[in-house]
Amino acid sequence: MNESSIRSLGLKVVVAASNDENHPPENMIDGNANTFWMSTGMFPQEFIIRFAEMTNVSSVTLDSYNVKHLKVEKNTSENASHFEFVEEKELKLTEGQLQTNSISLGGSNATHLRFIITSGYDHFVAVHKIDAAASSLVV
Amino acid sequence: MVRLRARCLMVGDPAVGKSALSQMFHSDGTLFQKNYSMTTGVELLIKSVNIPESGDSVELYIIDSAGKESLVEANEKMWGVPSLLCLVFDLASERSFGSCARWMERVRTHCKGLQVPGVLVGNKCDLSARREVPTSVAQEWAQSQGLEYHETSAKEMEKCDAPLLSLARAFHALYQERREAIQNLSPG
């Protein structure tokens, strides 16, 4: 399976640190960059996504706004716990348009990915879309 | 319905009434400590404020930080990046008002370039006979710093929840403004 879209990977958001009911976490994985999840104050902010099954993830692409520093962790367990660090990135400020960043995960096997936004360019940040590139499913 | 969270930093010289104001606000006016006890570290008080006519609320994480100069450096590490600022001085102490500029400078280094809504509070307005700072002077300085000015008396329970309520409303307004701006972004 190559360059799978996030929906065919059976993705779910299982945890999000903020919840504005008009901009729920599910907006990140609906494939639509016009809808977004918005943080509601203070850092760090985090969310955890779960794959339907263990997936070999080569990279994730994130459409966001005002995110400054992002850490990505993963695990291979059934539960959303015991994460290990994979990658971190300082995102550039893009005024008036979305930030689009691809983060290489080097083909890590994962059942969950945890995104930790440690700082932002504003009090509030938004994530519009997450896409994962999976090289193969692990049997 | 949205629940926002804001880190509200409470600073100013020692004994101006930061803890008294924080605790009066936190306890809905039921707890005024008659005996002074100096804050040496950082006290965290959490209080949820409902924003009228919106169904939304702002959870204030009030960081009541010691005013004593020799303790500030150690406590600054616990300030984090503030969302809101409450700068307090004693209306009966010219000196505590004079220190406000230095407090502003210090807070700014923690704001990381973010726009942080703030209020300046002249506390102890019940001590009218001993007042050393005229309203107009404080008001003018507050304006020059982009702060909203309030006068309170934690002791007499006079308007002592106004500054923090105003900050909660300012944070809510900021959220709505930012949300709208993000809604109007063109996809990248």
From TrEMBL, chain A:
GO terms for cellular component: centrosome; cilium; intraciliary transport particle B. The lineage of its organism: Eukaryota, Metazoa, Chordata, Craniata, Vertebrata. It comes from Hippocampus comes (Tiger tail seahorse). It comes from the Eukaryota. SUPFAM superfamilies: Galactose-binding domain-like (SSF49785). This is Heat shock protein, alpha-crystallin-related, b11. One of its GO terms (biological process) is intraciliary transport. InterPro entries: FA58C, Galactose-bd-like_sf, IFT25. Transmembrane segments: none annotated. Residues 16-121 form the F5/8 type C domain.
TrEMBL record, chain B:
GO terms for molecular function: GTP binding; GTPase activity. This is Intraflagellar transport 27. GO terms for cellular component: intraciliary transport particle; motile cilium. It is found in: Cell projection, Cilium, Flagellum. SMART domains: RAB, RAS, RHO. Keywords: Cell projection, Cilium, Flagellum, GTP-binding, Nucleotide-binding. It comes from the Eukaryota. Pfam families: Ras. Its main location: other. SUPFAM superfamilies: P-loop containing nucleoside triphosphate hydrolases (SSF52540). GO terms for biological process: cilium assembly; kidney development; regulation of melanosome transport. Belongs to the small GTPase superfamily. Rab family.
